[in-house]
Amino acid sequence: MAPSTTGSVDSGRRLRRDVGFWGLMFVSLGSIIGSGWLLGALTAATIAGPASLVSWILAAVMLVILALVHAELGAAYPIAGGTARFPSFAFGPLVGFTAGWMAWVQAVTIAPIEVEAMLSYCDHIGWVRHHITMLHADGTLTGVGLLVATVFMLLFTLINIVGVKLLAHSNGIAVIWKTAIPLLTVVVLLLLTFHASNFRAGGGFMPFGAHGVFAALPAGVVFALQGFEQAIQLAGEARKPQQDVSRAVITATAIGTLVYILLEIAFIGALNPAHIAHGWANPVGKGDFGPYATLAVGAGAAWLAGLLYADAVISPAGTGLVYVAASSRLSYALGREKSVPAAVAKVSPKGVPIVSVIIAFVVGEIAFLPFPSWHSLVGLVTSATAIMYAYGPIALRALRMRDPERNRPYRLPAHRVLAPVAFICANLIIYWSSFQAEWKLGLAILLGLMIFAVTRARTPRAERSPLNWTAAMWVWPWLGGMILIGFLGRYGGSKVLPDWIDVLTVAVFALAVYFFAVRIAVSSREVEAAVAAEQAEIAAEPELNIA
User: Which of 61, 284, 403, 540 is at 20 to 30 A from 144, Cα to Cα?
Assistant: First the structure.
């Protein structure tokens, strides 16, 4: 890969390294604990019943393995928008773009989704519902709702434009609150109203079988637990990236996992046994969008319900703030690689990718148009996130083989086993997210490739990096194969594949793709040249001394 020449685009500036361990950890934890905790438990319970607890544990195991993969990559290659860059080092710019584009698609849509969740939750407060109509009957935003949503998006944008230090500080305060309120909810519900019999009610522990357990994963469970990668996206702004990035990812993932599992236990135990005696269609109350607040009132803790409605603003808002930052760093990385117009990588005097931040705001506003509800969009975002995560395990193994002397402050244990297992996990999440999500994301990738092709055509030949077509040969069979399996599968597909045979098919296909991709990765010389060019370019940019 030829060195890129983006110094002129950045006006000689680079991202400022202002963020320490706590800032990185809070960024990841803040994105993990968002609207998912407010809504995920109810959605999972209606699909899987008490076995939704198994869904959370299964999702936690899968995402912890993926988090450990990315922890090694983030510490070994601490650059902004890392999820877009690791595959580029191992497979060239074409694969790097597909990974980065999918990472950007999922990141840029989460901020508006969080805002919509926040408004939907608050719209069920009596006073708000009677005096401020923010939602239509179908869940889309009214004019007033759009105005309120725009105010929040503007706030996220302004905080990001001011600088990453303010982002880290403001997010840190929000995350302390966001973690304390769920834990307080767990304690109160366990002490005041816990029915152990609920775990056997409404058809037994697993009323919908294994299918329900798997179907719950993309219906809010994986969405809730995702987000560990945000510390990696900001690694280019970390003071001690080799030391802090991996620790931040692992710590945030562990805390988030523990919080969500405790919440699911408390949620199921606090339900009114009469509501689930004959099934799990409406475990809290038909049409209720504030499950924990309803349970708190039922337990005689109206004061906790007030805190939960306040948290319905703070938790999603904090996550939305983080994802505006994450999406801007990803588009910044794509701009530096000349995969999208170079102007996207323009950095402000404060060391902020200002054009990318503004783009995140514009796309967020478009997402507020009459699109489906929070629940409908979660599956799409979950699948996009899984595609983004899937590039990590393959890149890790390829870079271990081609760049073995690289300093790796954190090393994935048993990586020969855990890396392919991580890739299988990501592919299973993609499959369970439904065929509808898969083919729509296929179209999104085609749109991205059109932008990539136009950008390449307008870039002088001397500045273009080789595409490494051979190293990219695995991507198209992989994505096309997953869409085909989804069409034949049992989650939105034609149900041709029987239960368990579909899971086995995904696993075998994923392993075949994994070993083929690792085998055709670029050479050691090309990896070393790409990493050296990146490091040289960053080192050549002057350090900013702006307070």
Answer: 284
Share of the chain above pLDDT 70, in %: 88
> DSSP state, 285?
-
Residue 343 corresponds to which amino acid?
Answer: A
Nearest CA-CA partner of 261 in 32, 458, 9: 32
User: Is residue 430 left, alpha or beta, with left meaning phi > 0 and alpha meaning psi from -120 to 50?
Assistant: alpha
State how far the Cα of 83 lies from the Cα of 70, in Å rounded to an integer: 8
CA trace torsion 164, 165, 166, 167 (10° rounding):
40
Q: Is the whole model's pTM more than 0.90, yes or no?
A: no
Q: Which two tokens stand for residue 183?
A: 């834990």
Would you list the DSSP string of 49-113?
GGGHHHHHHHHHHHHHHHHHHHHHHHHHS--TTHHHHHHHHHH-HHHHHHHHHHHHHHHHHHHHH
Question: Are 472 and 92 contacting, i.e. CB atoms less than 8 angstroms apart?
Answer: yes
pLDDT in tens, 234-284: 776 677 777 788 888 889 989 999 999 999 999 999 999 999 998 998 898
- The yes-or-no verdict on residue 544 having pLDDT over 50 is no
Question: Would you tell me the crossing angle of helices 52-76 and 374-402 to the nearest 10 degrees?
Answer: 40
